[in-house]
Amino acid sequence: MAGKILIIGACGQIGTELTLKLRDLYGNDRVVASDIREGNEELMNSGPFEIADATDAPVIESIIDKYGISKVYLMAAMLSATAEKAPMKAWNLNMDSLFHILNFAKDKKIEKVFWPSSIAVFGPTTPKNDTPQTTIMEPSTVYGISKQTGERWCEYFHDKYGVDVRSLRYPGIISYKTLPGGGTTDYAIEIFHEALKNKAYTSFLAEDTGLPMMYMDDAIKATVDIMKAPSEKIKVRSSYNLSALSFTPKVLAEAIQKEIPDFKISYDPDFRQKIADSWPSSIDDSEARKDWQWKHDFDMQSLVKEMLSGVSEQLNTAK
Ligand code: NAD
Q1: How far apart are CA 141 and CA 130, in angstroms?
Q2: From the CB of 12, is ligand 1 less than 6 Å away?
Q3: Is residue 177 pLDDT above 90, yes or no?
């Protein structure tokens, strides 16, 4: 592989596991992690790391030069729930960081870019079930507005300047290795920790709130696969719909009860309910499946089993 990989926002929920997977695939010293803060021990000890602010173009450029970077995965962002509390900060981080990377690609300093979008690009007027790739998009959150705008710019930089940028509209990503960063789907992670610690959980979303979700391993697989696919196969240059599962807090609780029969759930919706209500319940990702053969591996029960065993191992080591 010519040139090295840079992951910006590498210490977050997805960045951590993505960095470790890419180091596995391409070699530890070929994958540079960066973030504004240090990450977990495994990440910090497995390869090169740089503290860098994604909005600081000269600093990012100096890292690209120092390591001979050719591919950038831009994972730094402010997520849905946090962004509602600091709209301008979220807008500046989510947009400036993307422009810097798109401009480096336009100027041929780097060859390929991965930038994640989200189901948050959809809004209350979008068809809720089996939401198609192309449809009404009127996002009502700061985060969603920034992701939709980002998608437009990705497509523009591809069409106008030939920038090889690839993107996925991640659903809620469920994992246990790194805690989530303030999204609306975080309940589907907290529930496992509380089920194992206290056998009870109060969900901040109502019982019948259906949302698209995916186990982390599938999200990482999709990210690796879309970046590996030949350029001509990537027909969508805004961002691909991506889907695996769709469930409500009630259905997730029932799946957990199959493993922990005395687990109890209650519901106390907060400001995140309104965000969740504006998003699709399920996603049609047939274009990703057709164009670059996307396929998910984890169903509901395998996700629950993986989460319970991963979180319980973590709780035992923490003792
Ligand atoms: P996260 O909040 O867990 O991680 C983001 C990382 O970015 C953090 O480590 C943070 O320290 C870092 N960061 C923040 N500001 C920075 C800055 N100025 N410079 C450099 N680094 C900075 O988020 P995540 O869940 O890992 O999400 C990664 C990407 O995937 C984001 O673009 C997010 O919008 C998208 N996404 C995530 C989900 C999900 O369920 N986790 C769903 C849809 C889309």
Answers
A1: 21
A2: yes
A3: yes
